[in-house]
Amino acid sequence: MDWLALQRCYATPPGASARTRRLLALQKVLEGAQYDALPYPFASERSAAGEYIPLSQRRPSVRTNLCRTVVDEVVSLLFGNTHWPLAVASHAPTSEAMNAFALETGLPAFMMQVATRGSVGSVAIWVEILDHRPRLSFLETAYLIPEWDSCGVLLGVTERFMVTGAELEASGYAMAPDSRSSRFWWQRRWTRTALEVFAPLPVEEEGSSILDEERSRAHDFGFVPVVWIRNLGAASGAEPDGECSFEKAIDTVIEADYLLSQAGRGLKYGSDPTLVLKTPDILDGVARQGGAASALTLPPEGDAKLLEINGAAAGAVLAHYRELRQLVLEQLHGNRTHGDRLGSPQSARAMELMCQPLIWMADRLRGTYGDGGLLPLYRMLCRLSAIVPAGLSIGGEIRRDLDPAGLSLHWPAWFTADEAELLPMAQGLKEAVSAGLLSQETAARLYACAAGIADPAAEWTKIMAAQAA
Q1: Whole-angstrom Cα distance, residue 409 to residue 366?
Q2: How far from 455 is each of 130, 212, 461, CA to CA, in Å?
Q3: How does pLDDT run across 196-226, given as a tens digit for each residue?
Q4: In the 8-state DSSP scheme, what is residue 438?
């Protein structure tokens, strides 16, 4: 079975487009549920009617989930605890407010969730203002349709899918008892001036949707409060989705899952092989039940033997799986090193060389979710601070008219240096400053980054304050 054949087993959502079906299928792989649609467990060889069950209809008993593993690794390297970028701006209040917002709202954990869910191709961030506080929600884009103008500015985002009357009733809609099993179109739209929620429209009825004035909300921001992020894609373009981070390796992962499942089945069989009895006095029905260790009593002319297999095949299977695993990690730019082979602590440079493919992948995602996601989010907050009459409440303070000029991200080093590396670096920077090749501020920031200090700019301010004192 390959990925194309497996997708045919999935139930098609009513009214779903080809793009929606593709994104929903990729989400199943990300969640490790891609085999749940297969009807039989892997150990079932015969159906209740005695018919043979092909392997393509059985759920693998081993699921490696290598696609999700690589996504988790690269997202941790992108927005992990020691890899979060600092906001830097020409105006100090702006960078201070953005960094305070990230700390106050737990933005690193939120962006890790965004980057994980967006690995299927795209993801969106919805920004709301509740009691002068910004609130963020991530939107999965399978049912979202964005619209851009000729300059690449977002004009609107429409969400539309089918629901049942029972689901609408659970969401607060008043439904007649005979309508609970009926299907409705549910639709809402984000525009530059409002969030428009439409009244549910029965599927069998034709016509345009009617705006639900009670559930709709006007904001008059002058822009759509949604940040659309294309995974591994350009910042602009007509396509709503970028490249999936793991789609190219799904076929190989499926092969590895079935291979390990079959190998496990063979090992179980080798532990308890089939017993064959040869006797002329056999009765009708089942000749014998139980394990191979059970005692037997046979007539003199009878015979018994075990159908054993060669155990050397298990080693060949594991060798083949290792090759498949290396191929998957090579396709996904995953980490191919083994931690149990490291005999001593490694330097930061050695760690970078060992994780070089993973770093290359994370470096591409810095442009996608940093320059294409985090920076537009910060700029949107700056615009909102000038639009909302009373300003935004960030970090316990009211922020007004934040200037986004020069707003950028300062990314930390991939791995912090150890003690053996810091001393030679400090000596080299000191000589560079003495020779006039570097300013003292630049040298201090470089050393702070290598040492793993979260805010090099704040560290330089402390140094200047200590010198003045």
Answers
A1: 10
A2: 30, 47, 10
A3: 999 998 888 877 788 999 999 999 999 999 9
A4: S
